[in-house]
Write a structure and sequence with these properties.
The structure is a single chain. By secondary structure, the chain is α/β, with parallel strands linked by helices. The chain has a domain of 180 residues: P-loop containing nucleotide triphosphate hydrolases (Rossmann fold). Helix 3 packs across helix 4, helix 3 runs parallel beside helix 5 and helix 4 packs across helix 5. The longest helix is centred in the middle third of the chain and has 18 residues. 34% of the residues are buried.
Length: 310
């Protein structure tokens, strides 16, 4: 029995877009849990539905069916004002594009303070300025940067401003939506180090949404792999990388670039074909095949996967 505290629980989540007659299913029957204090990775190709899940947790995208629970309290669908305020405060999102997510006409001081103003989370003007100063220092920016505009900063600095805007709210769960994909490689490492430091110091929990598996391996505790709106495999990060079971996960991992040019030239990239599954007569089910190891497969596949666990 796992005694870790479940901070967020997603159960049978389904998200649709478009008209009722011709709906597009972006997320289909997705279930997972995030434990307090962990970094949970959600990875997949572009268009797989990972960002849609992140946006539904912060109530930007509505759930068609299923539920999302935060600290055992349902936060999807209609909720009261008190719960809505709690979610706004305790669940924050770092967006992918550090330029598009910041108001170009506002100074950094206002950008970082926006959440404080909305929820009136300060006692005086002096208190607000102290909170902004502390948030900027936490992400490695000087307090005097508060009087500048976003266009005066580099991409990495702008992303730090985005992180400061999140930090000032004192959240418990941070959703990092492709938060480093728009940055140079050297800057990515700096931002990842900041996120790791903040996790240790402030006891944060992360949902790290990404398509770059090589990065996800080193900062996540567990990884869920998503393909076309369905999670196909969920396991501890190292276990998933050492012994992937689902064909789609194997294909994704085989495409990771290798630093050695000879190994890169000789590697074999696996191609995933959905036709390899016989799901018409025997549809797949989301199944726990080992402790905290979940996979999508039909009865025959599940039997095979269980024999492959090391």
């Amino acid at each position: 029995m796992d005694k870790r505290e479940i901070l967020l629980e997603v159960e049978n989540l389904r998200i649709e877009f478009g008209s009722k007659k011709k709906p597009f299913v972006a997320v289909d029957d997705v279930s997972f849990q995030i434990y307090k204090g962990e970094t949970f990775g959600l990875v997949g190709e572009s268009g797989s539905g990972k960002t849609t899940i992140g946006r539904s947790i912060v109530r930007i995208n509505k759930a068609k069916s299923g539920s999302i629970k935060f600290k055992s309290k349902v936060i999807s669908g209609k909720i009261d004002k008190k719960t809505d305020r709690e979610i706004t405060e305790k669940i924050q999102m770092i967006f992918q594009d550090p330029m598009a997510s910041l108001n170009e006409r506002a100074k950094v001081d206002y950008i970082v303070s926006e959440g404080l103003y909305n929820l009136k989370k300060f006692t005086s003007e002096e208190d607000r300025k102290k909170k902004v100063e502390r948030a900027l220092l936490d992400v490695g920016l000087l307090p005097e940067f508060a009087s500048r505009f976003p266009h005066e900063f580099s991409g990495g600095q702008r992303q730090r401003i985005g992180i400061a805007r999140v930090l000032v709210m004192e959240p418990e769960l941070v959703i990092a939506d492709e938060s480093i994909s728009a940055l140079d490689v050297s800057i990515r490492a700096q931002v990842l180090n900041i996120l790791s430091k903040l996790k240790r110091e402030k006891g944060l929990t992360y949902l790290f949404v990404a398509h770059d598996l090589s990065v996800v391996r080193f900062i996540t505790d567990r990884i869920a792999v998503i393909n076309k709106g369905k999670i196909v495999e969920l396991a501890e990060s190292e276990e998933l990388f050492k012994n992937p079971l689902h064909p789609y996960t194997k294909a994704l991992l085989s495409a990771i670039p290798l630093p050695d040019p000879i190994s890169e030239r000789n590697k074999v990239i696996e191609v995933y074909d959905e036709k390899m599954h016989d799901y018409e007569a025997n549809p797949p089910k989301w199944t726990e095949i080992s402790d905290d190891y979940f996979i999508l497969g039909n009865e025959e596949e599940i039997k095979l996967y269980r024999t492959q666990i090391k």
